[in-house]
Automatic annotation (TrEMBL):
SMART domains: PKD. PROSITE patterns: PKD (PS50093), REJ (PS51111). Keywords: Cell membrane, Cell projection, Cilium, Disulfide bond, Glycoprotein, Membrane, Repeat, Transmembrane, Transmembrane helix. It is found in: Cell membrane; Cell projection, Cilium. It comes from Macaca fascicularis (Crab-eating macaque). Residues 175-392, 432-607 form the REJ domain. This is Uncharacterized protein.
């Protein structure tokens, strides 16, 4: 009786360490001993059975070790259970941190080898603040003053410890947080069969110190406010790293989505995000009767009504699924009860033929074609056919499906620009426009500039997107009057467009501030300072726009130069301006037709 295990046990033992165990009883003879070492580890439990008064055991992995020892003889037995922790010795800790800025939370991580399991961490951030204890290899801390600080972490467990140190530099942020907004209804409507624009209005608050980063994320969910983790949707081939998101037709399946836009300044904590609830809706089926809305047909020939060109605009041409058809004669100019007594059939195929003997000369017939398929609403179109006695070659005209009426309402536009490359961007504001049948769909605004001289005209698309308020840097007009024509075109998702504004404006060459610096020197300074800053702000729209204004100002300035009397260093400076602009433009990523057109127009000016 009195089973004991002397000198056992400390709370923990190290993995892979050989340990000796001895059992004793206070009284008894011919006593045998059995040992059961049950190790509960991550990879599964293991059991080792040993016999004898003195045994040796080596734990092979970290976990909870339960030791049962049994002493027994012919007269009875006695058991004892011991529980202790098997832990990996901390061999190495690498201390890492993110960028540190005053009055902002900075994160620190202690990468622990071989494992952070059952390791405690004590952090000292070197600024006199109280230490911090964590059970995870991560911590956050806020520094109040800039400077260099020695950070120390002590990673320890029951069998070992390791101290790691690192020096961090705490800086003062050079910029304020950006501002971002999307002026949209609570629920944005996008047509799956159309190209869609969605654009965030970003105010970087003149920050060019850090590299600006933009990111669009799309999630499949009924609402951005719905709890849970929605499924993220991939958008291959779509540029999601700029404020303007252009979704090609058929890019997203029909359904509800949450669009998230994030703008951030490099590795700083300065960031802003916004969300938009988006519904991708199917477009209506398109019934088409070959020949258009009206045809003249000879009553000496069988009349063929062909609706095989009808289609579903929500599917690619090669992925079209079968439609159901129904033909009907809904009216005729004959005085008949019921409107039309013309009988024909079968009416359920895409093409029907009406025998000529059933057509009456001088009568106009109106036929209706209705198409539908599972899960989709019926759509119908009409064609009127005039039957004539003489043999007349039938006339064909393109059959264009009717679009919903596009009505817009104009409230105000304000254009202010007198010089190219002004200190303030010319501001374009428009409001009160909407599409009659798509209240939740964003409209597309295009700012077009045209300048002419001696029968030669140049046209530029300065901006195209969904912002109804936009500040633009505009190219100058041609000498001597510097007059340009500006047009604002408002377009809905179905392609219907209206010219909202069409007016002339004089945009002269800029005048360098102070008057002590020539225009060439001033332009060269802008290419060396403003253009790199715009590249760091990472919006290609502004880079293209500013590059176009720079090079067109240079071109117009050269028209009045006496090249023969110009110093060589001035020519070299102008050549360097063109080189800088060209290199800037060719460095931009191209993803849309709009990008290609804008960049090509600017490059043509820099040649």
């Amino acid at each position: 009786s009195g089973l004991q295990v002397p000198n056992c046990c400390e709370p923990g033992i190290a993995t892979g360490t050989e340990r000796n165990f001895t059992a004793r009883v206070q009284r008894g003879s011919r006593v045998a001993y059995a040992w059961y070492f049950s190790l509960q580890k991550v990879q599964g439990d293991s059991l080792v059975i040993l016999s004898g008064r003195d045994v040796t055991y080596t734990p092979v992995a970290a976990g909870l070790l339960e030791i049962q020892v049994r002493a027994f003889n012919a007269l009875g037995s006695e058991n004892r259970t011991l529980v202790l922790e098997v832990q990996d010795a901390v061999q190495y800790v690498a201390l890492r941190s993110g960028p540190c800025f005053t009055n902002r939370s900075a994160w620190f991580e202690a990468a622990t080898s071989p494992s952070p399991r059952r390791v405690a961490y004590h952090w000292d951030f070197g600024d006199g603040a109280p230490g911090q204890d964590t059970d995870e290899p991560r911590a956050e801390h806020c520094y109040l003053r800039p400077g260099d600080y020695r950070v120390q972490v002590n990673a320890s467990n029951l069998v070992s410890f390791f101290v790691a140190q690192a020096t961090v530099t705490v800086q003062v942020l050079a910029c304020r947080e950006p501002e971002v907004d999307v002026v949209l209804p609570l629920q944005v409507l996008m047509r799956r069969s159309q190209r869609n624009y969605l654009e965030a209005h970003v105010d970087l608050r003149d920050c060019v110190t850090y590299q600006t980063e933009y990111r669009w994320e799309v999630y499949r969910t009924a609402s951005c406010q719905r709890p849970g983790r929605p499924t993220r949707v991939a958008l291959p081939g779509v540029d999601v790293s700029r404020p303007q998101l252009v979704l090609p037709r058929l890019a997203l399946p029909v359904g509800h989505y949450c669009f998230v836009f994030v703008v951030s300044f490099g590795d700083t904590p300065l960031a802003r995000s916004i969300q938009a609830n988006v519904t991708v809706a199917p477009e209506r089926l398109v019934p088409i009767i070959e020949g258009g809305s009206y045809r003249v047909w000879s009553d000496t020939q069988d009349l063929v009504l062909d609706g095989s060109e009808s289609y579903d605009p929500n599917l690619e041409d090669g992925d079209q699924t079968p439609l159901s058809f129904h033909w009907a004669c809904v009216a005729s100019t004959q005085r008949e009860a019921g409107g039309c007594a013309l009988n024909f059939g079968p009416r359920g195929s895409s093409v029907v033929t009406i025998p000529r003997e059933r057509l009456a000369a001088g009568v106009e017939y109106t036929f209706s074609l209705t198409v539908w398929k599972a899960g989709r609403k019926e759509e119908a179109t009409n064609q009127t056919v005039g039957a004539t006695r003489p043999s007349v070659t039938r006339l064909r005209q393109p059959s264009i499906p009717a679009h919903p009426l596009f009505s817009v309402f104009y409230s105000m536009y304000n254009l202010q620009a007198t010089h190219a490359l002004p200190a303030q961007r010319g501001r374009l504001r428009g409001g009160g426009w909407h599409a009659a049948e798509a209240a939740g769909a964003p409209l597309v605004y295009a700012l077009l500039l045209r300048r002419c001289r001696q029968g030669h005209c140049e046209e530029f698309c300065v901006y195209k997107g969904s912002l109804s308020s936009y500040g633009a840097v505009l190219p100058p007009g041609f000498r001597p009057h510097f007059e340009v024509g500006l047009a604002v075109v408002v377009q809905d998702q179905l392609g219907a467009a209206v010219v909202a504004l069409n007016r002339s404006l004089a945009i002269a060459l800029p005048e360098p501030s102070g008057g002590t610096t020539g225009l060439t020197v001033w332009l060269h300074g802008l290419t060396a300072s403003v253009l790199p800053g715009l590249l760091r702000q990472a919006d290609p729209q502004h880079v293209i726009e500013y590059s176009l204004a720079l090079v067109t100002v240079l071109n117009e300035y050269e028209q009045a130069l006496d090249v023969a009397a110009e110093p060589e260093h001035e020519r070299q400076r102008r050549a360097q301006i063109r080189k800088n602009v060209t290199q800037t433009l060719v460095s931009l990523r191209v993803h849309t037709v709009d990008d290609i057109q804008q960049i090509a127009a600017a490059l043509a000016q820099s040649m």
